[in-house]
Design goal:
heterodimer, A: mainly alpha, two-stranded antiparallel sheet, about 5% strand, B: about 575 residues, mainly alpha, 22 helices, 2 strands, about 0% strand, globular
Chain lengths: ~90, ~575
Amino acid sequence: MPLSDRRRYWRTNLKYLAVLLSIWFVVSYGFGILLVDQLDTIRVGGFRLGFWFAQQGSIYVFVVLIFVYVRLMNRLDKRYDVDEDG
Amino acid sequence: MNVQAWTFTLVGLSFALYIGVAIWSRARSTGEFYVAGGRVHPVINGMATAADWMSAASFISMAGLIAFMGRDGSVYLMGWTGGYVLLALLIAPYLRKFGKFTVPDFVGDRYYSSVARVVAVVCAMFVSFTYVAGQMRGVGIVFSRFLNIDINHGVFIGMGIVFFYAVLGGMKGITYTQVAQYCVLIFAYLVPAIFISLLMTGVVLPQLGFGSTLADGSGVFLLDKLDGLSRELGFDAYTSGQRSTLDVFAITAALMVGTAGLPHVIVRFYTVPKVAAARSSAGWALVFIALLYTTAPAVAAFARTNLLSTIAEVPYQEVPPWFTSWEATGLIQYQDLNGDGLVQYRGPNAELANEVQIDPDIMVLANPEIANLPTWVVALVAAGALAAALSTAAGLLLVISTSVAHDLLKRIIKPDISERDELIAARVAAGVAVVIAGYFGINPPGFVAQVVALAFGLAASSFFPVIILGIFSKRTNKEGAIAGMVIGILFTGAYILYFKGFHPELNNAEHWFLGISPEGIGTLGMLLNFAVAISVSRITPPPPEEIQRMVEEIRIPRSAGEAREIGA
């Protein structure tokens, strides 16, 4: 694999990480901790929104984030021909 | 059948299942013993990782802690799940590509240093021993409460079972028994939760149930009712938080990063066949963990509501039977302070004095009884708690035996050891570790809970930064890594020891540095480790060419073989 491809592959990976980890931070530390009191003024059914993010929502988002990353990386591996089936 | 007969039956059946699985899947080589031959399907590995990770603390203690802490309990929910995002995105795929067997393997090779390897071995063993002692204790408590067996005999039985399949089966045996244990523990957790959700709100899914209206036709939301009850009895509203935002932030981060740095979790990702499988396996692990972790806060809210409405202002002669049976274990204590014969359970803001002390650990175990569920459900919870404790204990024992046989014996003391002898050494080490763990289970050090906080803090402030830098920064060298690990550990360890060991009377927000509790200090330790490792690396020579090439290789999935046999 040429050096320039290697660099581009790695840079794309880092870009994915930056975006996904920002979401990870916002739903847990953002919605569940820093902004929890503000969000608690909004109600969804019996839940206050901040409370819901802290005890439910953040966990669901975590699961989705991992599987999004799995898909993105599987595609990226194929595009740069570094996947393990090749 | 009564509760005890049901418990004997269900626990007996589940133990027979684990032993059967262990015999079917025993290990024949070091590769199978350490990493199950590197051929475990990612979904299966995810399930085993979930059982490995969810310990007696997750199963028995967590919902109880949340029930008493309300919104502040979210630190455990986010902290113990969010770490899997870090694992899947930043650690698991790269360590799988690296191959080999252990975390000290990576630290030692990446930082080309035996010192770094030994520091990592010591951390791994310390973290694992503190954990395993707690599991053995959990086993003992379940046996004594539900089977009326002496707590020490309970620990012996637990030791015997773990000894059998950990020593015989190694990672391969453990992986497949953990799959069975996951099924038992999740079934045992969900069944009572669904029952109670139906009873209280008429909604099947507990995750939705605790945000719904009560089934009594009043149209009041369960959480509003709980907030109201709490305030009436002088507690703070359940859905409000009391801890400072910075402290909640720090504790959550320490638990997340600690999770991603725990050796017995990381090593699970060496067992899958490919890098892509390591990524998806972490995702599956979190799916299986989330099933329990999204149910736990619902269980907590149900249990708290039931508790507040069943024992407030009841004449002591008429308290429900679970109250008296837990009183016998000392985990509920009642004292009629004002002599009116009524049970007053009150919070800190109430005018009347509180007369009841309740240990949060009993909430999950007592919940089915409090809600009047059928006896077989109560017995099921006991079997589930045992599955949770045993599966975690086995995973930890494996890390300890691998550290001794592989990291110390093979890599440092006697590199020319044959595979057969190494396998024997690994089994002997696992056996010795079981005995030591059992000793701590019977004679628990008075500071078990504190030591667990220390374990997370240490994992966060030692392993995590060194692993991340080892993958993402080619420039980080051995000087930086060792300095970072040592300073991170010393800072975190000293802070926790100061408040938990030497000056427990000063352990409050007024004296904490920046208002961060010992539980959250690992976050600062981690930042310190990063800062030291990066700056020391800058002023010392860069790592050798071949190490930089190795890092390049780790970043690319192709050519990841099976976990290599020893000697490769």
